[in-house]
Amino acid sequence: MIALTRRQIWILVIVLGTILCLTLFIAPRDTSQRQGSTYGRSPDGYAAWYAEMERRGTPVRRWQKPLGELFNPSTQFQETSFAPAALDLTKAQSAFIPVDLSSRVTLLRIGNRLLPPNNPAEREWIRKGNVLVQLGVRTPVTKAPFTSDISSSVGSVRIETRRRARDAKTSSLLEDSFGAVVWQEPIGQGRVVYASTPFLAANAYQDFQGNFKLLTKLVTEAGYPIWVDEYLHGYKDANVIQKETPGNVIAYLMRTPLVLIGIQAVVLLGVLIWGQNQRLGQPIVAANPVTDNSEAYIQAMAAVLRKAECSEFVVETVGKAEQLEIQKALGLGTELLSLRRSWMPGGRQTGRTAAELETVLRTAQRHRRVSESDLMRWVENIQTVRQHLP
Q1: Which of 72, 175, 270, 305 is the most buried (most CB within 10 A)?
Q2: This model's pTM is above 0.85
């Protein structure tokens, strides 16, 4: 197991903390965008209410284009996707029917929004007699209990929010003592219906029929064709996707989250600078090798003798030294003796013949130059003699 230093541990903690923060605060949040979608089967989706409308025989269409095409239609008739709740997104995109956008419609939008509608085209569209039902508008938080069961003309409605509109008493459609939960605002010939909760008829309230009935009443009361804004939740028709898809690499890069990539690069660069670009810790200083003066002298002398081809000097010097080592091993003292006298006791101790030692030592006493191959064989013979010494 690799032991980390205190500095490496701090660097690791900083990197992991940065990644966690980027993931929590900057990473894309797709789930919040899909809240309130009629395709959603999660508790905050509206697939159950959409299926209920299909069973009632009340057609509800999904608008999967920018709202600008609904508020300012370029032609009287357009092709727009229309599919029942059982179909998935890809199938819904492939089913198109002609739609007359000049007639009045009721548009249902589900998601937290500011009020009132400030888009001039949107207000003009409402003024012409259209109806906008906006679920989930930002209203003040009151002292109301989070969960309330409020009576209405369609039955008890379960509300789970403390937000209320206090200045909408005269136009209230659902209220309690703390303020209005659902109210309306007339604009010209049309009107806008607001709700302080985006989950009025979400899947989580299937057991509360009053919630489903109230939303159904809000969207069917005018008797207009009903549209649900799914473009708000990221669902788009095939022609819209084709139109909005970038056509080159540069356009694609401009649509990527460059801010996130830049922040990651800056953090990584800061960690590298703080750590002095030492990924594996402090650099290890190579230790200087300890020089053996005797060995260095011998190596230098050997190189000079080999260059000068002075093999006789090597044989004589090494031979005398080896003879003294042999005599010491045999207990014959440190004075050089004759070949026969120095080997006879050794022959009796080792069981070897005297001729073997004489061959080695006689070569050292001839004082003549030998070839390099003969020199190597002589060294091997010396090693053999050493192996048999007591």
Answers
A1: 175
A2: no
C-alpha pair distances (Å), 300 with each of 159, 314, 369, 373: 98, 14, 20, 21
Which pLDDT score is estimated for 375? 77
Comparing C-alpha atoms, which of 26, 20, 14, 99 is closest to residue 274? 14
Assess contact for 214 and 200: CB atoms under 8 A. Answer: yes
Kindly report the backbone phi and psi dihedral angles of residue 247, in degrees, each rounded to the nearest multiple of 5, phi listed first.
Answer: -95, -5
State pLDDT tens for residues 192-221: 999 999 999 999 999 999 999 999 999 999
- The three-state DSSP-derived secondary structure of the chain is CCCCCHHHHHHHHHHHHHHHHHHHHCCCCHHHHHCCCCCCCCCCCCHHHHHHHHHHCCCEEEECCCCHHHHCCCCCEEEEECCCCCCCHHHHHHCEEEEECCCCCEEEEEEEECCCCCCHHHHHHHHCCCEEEEEEECCCECCCCCEEEECCCCCCEEEECCECECCCCCCEEEEECCEEEEEEEEECCEEEEEECCCCCCCHHHCCCHHHHHHHHHHHHCCCCCEEEECHHHCCCCHHHHHHHCCCCHHHHHHHCCHHHHHHHHHHHHHHHHHCCCCCCCCCCCCCCCCCCHHHHHHHHHHHHHHHHCCHHHHHHHHHHHHHHHHHHHHCCCCCCCCHHHHHHHHHHHHCCCHHHHHHHHHHHHCCCCCCHHHHHHHHHHHHHHHHCCC
* Cα angle, residue 158 at apex, residues 156 and 160 outer, rounded to 5°: 155
Residue owning tokens 């249902």: 108
Tokens representing residue 321 in the block? 């030294």
Length of the chain: 390
Residue 383 pLDDT exceeds 90? no
Model pLDDT for residues 270-327, shown as the tens digit of each residue: 777 776 655 555 667 777 777 677 877 878 887 887 787 777 777 777 777 877 777 7
Cis amide leading into 116 (omega within 30): yes
**Where is average pLDDT lowest: 86-100, 144-158, 298-312?**
86-100
Q: Report residue 81 as tokens.
A: 């996707």
